[in-house]
Fold these 4 entries.
Entry 1:
Amino acid sequence: MNKFIYGICCGLFITILVALLIGCNLNQYAVGPAHIINPKANIDSIFQHEIKDKANQIEQLKNKGILLTPQEYTNNLANYYNTIITVLIALLAVFSVISFFHLKFIAQEEVKKNVTELIRKSPEIQKILLENFQGKIDEVLYDIPDKIANLESNIKYLKKDSSKTNIEDEEDEKDLESLKVKA
């Protein structure tokens, strides 16, 4: 479950990071509406001053690179929507993977719960499990009495041998006494 929570946190972090990157690149070409007029056309002398001011403003915007041609504007708009579509596809993939693993985890937990409940409540399954386990236990315990009898006979034999040994030297006898386990 900890891996799942870690995955969700990483997914949210990446989503927020992508949203911030897209948000920072938005509106870098935002300019108030500019009305383009033909300065060479016959216009009343009253509006010529305003027209020259607007034409100068347009030239300044063009020189700064703020005023876009229709191709540049369309290209920027297409890039913007391509970025949005790419981010949405990536988010769809991330959430699909997260959903897959989450559903897998939930399904496994549900199966474990149902199996333990079925084992506890169904006497038929308990009988089958008991027969299988009993057979395995009998195979393991089959040789145990023979092994115990073998060990007991070996112990008796070793006791007889130890009582028959003659200790000729008193020093060896003292060493033997010091080595014996006191009860």
Note: The chain has two domains: 2-28+45-121, 122-161.
Entry 2:
Amino acid sequence: MIKKIKSNRGIIFTFEAVIVAFIFLTIFFLGYSIYSHNLLTGIEEKKDTEKFHKALLLKDLFLKKYEFPGNYSEDYIQNFTDELNLKEKTFDPINNFTNDSDRFIFIIYPNKYDNILNNYVNLSNITFNFSGIIFKIYSNVSNVNNISINLSNIKIYDWVVFFKENVYIPKITGITYNSNVVYLYGCEGDHIYFKIQNYKTNNINISNVSAKLLNYTGSSEVIFSINGYIYNKSLNSSFKNINEIIPNIISGINKIEILYSPVPVEFKIKTTNVTKFYYLTLSPRNITIMVNPND
């Protein structure tokens, strides 16, 4: 039996028609809700994707902008770094980040060798304090002061974070003036660049080259290369002559790579007369880069 409903205007509805209409409206609103949700989700995902791509571009931009060399003396730049033909991907914390401080933050992590170098490198040290994460570099060719970055003040939800970007950091930068000896330092994986001013001219020649291990008991094999020539030496905590490398030292830019060593290595190069030495130690590090892609 079909039940009917009569309105005040005389229009007659069946219960079945009302139920069908209710079901139709329910399906319509459910479909509309799902469509609206998917549309809004798609828009948000598109915005997130665009923001992520923008952050990637900014990260690459900042890495390029703040690569080595940063802010160093004119002598160091003109007579040394301008002659370097670096192949390494570098990042230099000796830069002025003021203009990008609200969009770019970095953290450099120390390694197991850093505390050893603190006791031997006779240069001014610059300390970076990332809310308790301490990293030091050494230089007498930069006027940058100690830097402290309070990470607790960062609103993390506003940032896209890139973990463990692998770059080379200028760990040691310097010039030794009016001397006939220079000390160079490097750890496993480090690249040491140096230049001897007027080498093989003005009676400037190398009289002796020696090397030793820092803060190490006993002796150990050390593998290193100089200008592409590989050497395997047994070193201990006392300087040992390695004069056989002298023929491979050139008058321009020289490069030493520490291929294996249990601790930092100290090289001592002596010349026949006083001169000027330029040097750089690039150290491979993992850094965290935080980029704010928001306008």
Note: The mean pLDDT is 84.
Entry 3:
Amino acid sequence: MRVLPDVMITIPHQYQCLANGNKELFIGYVKGFIRKNHPELRPKQIRGIYVICERDEEFEERKAIKQKTKSASSRKRTKSK
């Protein structure tokens, strides 16, 4: 298992305004932001206006499997023409 470096991502300022001091709501916004915009990352810690994320190894594996099946299915379609 290889160790990957952590990634720092700036949290959009609007999320702080929308949460209006509600810590749980803010954390939910940040998790949703990372899930939607950076699916290859998992949030680990929030520090001020940054969220520290780690790379999701399972995402990389699923992506590799998906690409293999996609290329195999495209080869099948080209042969049948």
Note: The chain has three helices and three strands.
Entry 4:
Amino acid sequence: MIKQLCLTGVLLALGGCRSFPSVDLPPDPLLNYRSTLANPDAAAKKVELDKDMQSALGFCKNVLNYYEKNATYSSRALTGIAVVGAFAGGVVVPALSAQATLSKSAIAAWGGVSGLANTAQNTVVGNNLGPDSFVGSRAKIMVSVQGVMESYFKEESADKRAELVLRMYSTCISNDIVTGT
């Protein structure tokens, strides 16, 4: 029975562990626009800039997905940690306590696992790795992306539009994790 309880606890703990995905760096942000620099045709430049902006938006979509996935992973990890802690404190410790022949050290160890799970949850959230931080960061990026897009569609100058394509990449690359209140 003890071995089964220990194995179950280990499996539950491992189920909450997962590495976070990464986002690949963008390609040359103005690749299409650069091909039209020698061409005086403003319409051709606009078409190529639109392609560059589509690429920037594709990159931003990957960044936004990164934050969404991290929110999901973080939520699952916190749930896994909570289940292990609840299992250790609510099932294993009482079960071991009921059997007087078992050692006190096993009871203390499982009680420690329960307390450690609570501390781990608070540490994850306290270090802005909880789901709310990732969701908040994603929302902050979305607001910035919308602002750049509004400016892009209002702008007529090819050079200014090129700057906005670069700002789009910058908006999605350089952002802060939203901290909890």
Note: Residues 18 and 73 are 7 Å apart (CA to CA).
